[in-house]
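Lecture notes, continued. The same structure-token format from the folding unit now serves as the input rather than the output. Read the line below as a description of shape only.
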């Protein structure tokens, strides 16, 4: 018995049966809309209709591709510019932070030691205040630097205030007494003990006992320091300090060092007291500031001058530091120097001025 749909058909020859089935299939194909693609079990039959042929031919034109590429380049450029700008800004901020730290460190050291100018330990009420320092000024300076920083205090002289018409860096020398029994350091890291302390310790050592060893200390009753600008081993200018025969660098890349001295008016007791160290000769306030070349070197007791080193009760210090490398976007970036002038340099280094004013404690008038 035949199965399926062929069993329902009349008994016809197989050839005629096949031709009838093909004719019915063709009629069904003509009856379907041409816009609807024929479906199969795997989805639309590509290329079976006009719509299928149109979908296969769709894409981007050349103009659309060029516009897309241009937009992509703009976005990529913006991202790269932002990243590069952030990197440059970060380098500049790091450089400024390092310069700020170095500038503040140098000013802090100068401030701490300048406050000690003229310090002396009173041994008795009738002792002459300047006996220990042998009537010598506790503060000296030069507008153009010292001719030789290694000579004795009394032999210090100025090298000259200008070079090719422009003022060069200043120099500053200061001295103060070593505190007996205290711990004292100079600008190069030497720890001092006074000669008086050493002599007393050795004198009190019992016979046969080992005397205290002070070989690791600098032994002196007075600390003397000289600050100046010179070229370091790297070729960069730097601020240096010399004390007890040693010279050490305080700060690197220091292009300018300026010192001005505050003068206090003298009072009526100036002719009855030792004006070199006695603060009662000063009125206690700073009347004006002057450079070292404007001050008179004569500062003899009982006959002081209004513009002499005797009248100095404050020091105004300024440093101009520069960056290690080029961090500015353009050369000739303007900056303000220690003299108040707007200047430029033909490089892309960053420059900044650091300034402070120090009151000399031992020259401030007592109430």
């Amino acid at each position: 018995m035949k199965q399926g749909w062929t069993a329902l058909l009349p008994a016809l020859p197989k050839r005629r049966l096949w031709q009838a089935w093909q004719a019915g299939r063709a009629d069904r194909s003509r009856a379907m809309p041409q816009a609807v693609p024929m479906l199969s079990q795997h989805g639309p039959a590509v290329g079976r209709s006009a719509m299928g042929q149109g979908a296969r031919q769709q894409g981007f034109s050349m103009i659309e591709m060029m516009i897309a590429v241009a937009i992509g380049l703009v976005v990529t450029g913006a991202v790269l510019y932002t990243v590069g700008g952030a990197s440059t800004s970060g380098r500049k901020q790091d450089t400024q932070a390092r310069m700020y730290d170095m500038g503040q460190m140098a000013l802090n050291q100068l401030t701490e030691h300048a406050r000690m100018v003229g310090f002396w330990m009173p041994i008795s009420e009738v002792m002459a205040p300047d006996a220990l320092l042998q009537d010598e000024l506790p503060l000296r300076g030069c507008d153009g630097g010292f001719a030789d920083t290694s000579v004795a205090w009394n032999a210090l002289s100025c090298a000259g205030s200008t070079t090719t018409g422009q003022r060069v860096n200043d120099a500053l020398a200061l001295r103060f007494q070593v505190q007996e029994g205290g711990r004292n350091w100079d600008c190069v890291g030497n720890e001092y003990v006074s000669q008086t302390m050493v002599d007393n310790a050795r004198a009190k050592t019992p016979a046969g006992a080992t005397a205290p060893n002070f070989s690791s200390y600098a032994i002196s009753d007075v600390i003397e320091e000289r600050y100046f600008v010179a070229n370091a081993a790297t070729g960069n200018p730097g601020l240096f300090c010399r004390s007890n025969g040693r010279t050490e660098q305080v700060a690197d890349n220091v292009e300018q060092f300026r010192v001005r001295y505050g003068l206090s008016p003298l009072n009526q007791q100036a002719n009855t007291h030792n004006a070199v160290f006695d603060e009662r000769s000063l009125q206690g306030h700073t009347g004006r500031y002057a450079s070292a070349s404007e001050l008179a070197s004569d500062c003899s007791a009982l006959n002081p001058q209004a513009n002499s080193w005797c009248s100095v009760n404050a020091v105004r210090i300024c440093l101009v530091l520069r960056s290690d490398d080029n961090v500015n976007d353009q050369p000739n970036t303007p900056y303000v120097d220690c003299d108040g002038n707007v200047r430029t340099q033909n490089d892309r280094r960053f420059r900044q001025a650091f300034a402070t004013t120090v009151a000399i404690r031992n020259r401030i008038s007592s109430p």
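Point for the exam: The two ends are 139 Å apart (CA to CA).
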